[in-house]
Amino acid sequence: MARLLDKYKEQIIPEMMGKFNYRNKLEVPKLIKIVINMGIGKARENKKILDDAIKHLATISGQRPIITKARKAIAGFKTRKGDPIGCKVTLRGKRAYEFLDRLISIVLPRIKDFRGLPTEAFDGRGNYTLGISELAVFPEINIDDIEFVQGMDITVVLSGKSNEQSCESLRLFGVPFRS
C-alpha cells in the first residue's frame, strides 16, 4: 500500500477530526486526483517536441498521457481548432498518493533555491496548483534525453470544502509551505 495513504488513514484523519470538529471520518478532505498538464505551444511547428513531452510525462506518471487539442482557433497564438497543444495525465487512487509522496520527498527538495510552496495557489474550492519549470528535477528523467526544456502544471484536487481545510490536509501530508 502507498506510504502516504497509510499516513492519511493512521495520522491525518484523527488529527483533522480533532482540529475541524468533524463528526464522521468521511468528512475529512481526501485526495481525489492529481492532474499533470504540459502545455506545448510549439507542438504545431515541431512534432518531436510533443512526442518527447508524451514520453517524459509517461515516465514521470507511470501511465500514458492523452493529447490535448485546441478548442478554437486563436490567430495570436497561430493555432487552429484541433491542433495538438499539449498533453495531460490524471492520476487517481493509489497512483495519486504515490506520485504525491514522490513529489514531496524527492522532487521538491531537488528544485534549486526552493524555499517552500506559496499558500496563495489554492483556487477557492480547496484545489492546489503548482508549476514546475523543468523536468530535470524528476529522478526518472535522464538529463541527456531532454532536448527541449519543458515545464508542467500539477493540480492536486482534494475533497475539502475550503482552502483552509485543504491547506491543513496538505500540510499534514508533508507538503512544504512557506511560513
Automatic annotation (TrEMBL):
Pfam families: Ribosomal_L5, Ribosomal_L5_C. One of its GO terms (molecular function) is structural constituent of ribosome. GO terms for biological process: translation. Keywords: Ribonucleoprotein, Ribosomal protein. The keyword Coiled coil does not apply. Residues 84-177 form the Large ribosomal subunit protein uL5 C-terminal domain. One of its GO terms (cellular component) is ribonucleoprotein complex. Residues 24-80 form the Large ribosomal subunit protein uL5 N-terminal domain. InterPro entries: Ribosomal_uL5, Ribosomal_uL5_bac-type, Ribosomal_uL5_C, Ribosomal_uL5_CS, Ribosomal_uL5_dom_sf, Ribosomal_uL5_N. Belongs to the universal ribosomal protein uL5 family. NCBIfam families: PRK00010.1. PANTHER family: 60S RIBOSOMAL PROTEIN L11-RELATED. This is 50S ribosomal protein L5. It comes from marine sediment metagenome.
